[in-house]
Amino acid sequence: MNRTRLSLAMLVLIVIAAIAVVVSVAGGSTKKAEPAVAANSAISVEQTSVGKALADANGRTLYLFAGDKPNVSTLSAAGRAFWPPFTSTIRPSATGGAVAGNIGATSAGQVTYNGHPLYYFVGDHTPGQTAGQGLNQFGARWYVLSSSGAAITSAPKASASSTSTGGGAGYGY
User: Fold this and answer.
1) Is the residue at 115 inside a domain?
2) Can you list the positions of beta strands (E) in the chain?
3) What spatial distance separates the first Cα and last Cα of the chain, rounded to whole Å?
4) Which of 59, 80, 84, 116 to pair with 141, CA 20 to 30 A apart?
């Protein structure tokens, strides 16, 4: 009888611990999607590590999802947590080399360019970053766009701060 009670008590403790872990992980590390872009949004062409690419009014790089259909987003809800859609309450203006005639929107209000629904990547933290370039996630590849609206498929060029100078393996030799 004591052995049964001890086993039951251990099982209860394990279940409580598991629930606590799930709650802390879900509540503490969930990254929310970017909020909708303000009504005065714009699309421009900015210099990035893959060349000149589309960006929003704040210089954040915009991406296309190769799995989308023209003017229709096919990205899952799970995918949107990592690739939030670029949305606007009005049609964004075209500046700095972007073509106004290429800007549109899906029926859900997601901004499109040359028929491609546009997205941000949560791994980009500063203007001009292209950390999502070429990633194969959620069923297809992700690419930045040129001013014509075509996918730029080249890999990002390494920046001076990320290239290795060799030797030492971090030991300061």
Assistant:
1) yes
2) 42-48, 51-55, 63-65, 93-94, 103-105, 111-113, 116-117, 136-137, 140-145, 151-152
3) 65
4) 59
Residue type for 173, please?
A: Y
Q: How far is residue 25 from each of residues 11, 29, 31, 121, 136, measured CA to CA in Å? A: 21, 6, 11, 22, 25
Residue 62 covered by a domain: yes
CA distance readout (Å), 116 to 108, 127, 141, 170, 173: 14, 21, 13, 43, 50
**111 is a domain residue:** yes
Whether 44 and 122 have beta carbons less than 8 Å apart is answered as no
Q: Output the six-digit token pair for 148.
A: 């014509």
Instruction: Kindly state the DSSP code that residue 25 receives in the 8-state scheme.
Output: H
51-66 pLDDT per residue, tens: 999 999 999 999 999 9
Identity of the amino acid at 21: V
Range of the domain at 122: 42-152
- What total of structural domains would you count in the chain? 1
Domain assignment present for residue 106? The answer is: yes
Is-above-0.90 flag for pTM?
Answer: no
Structure tokens at 90: 């009005």
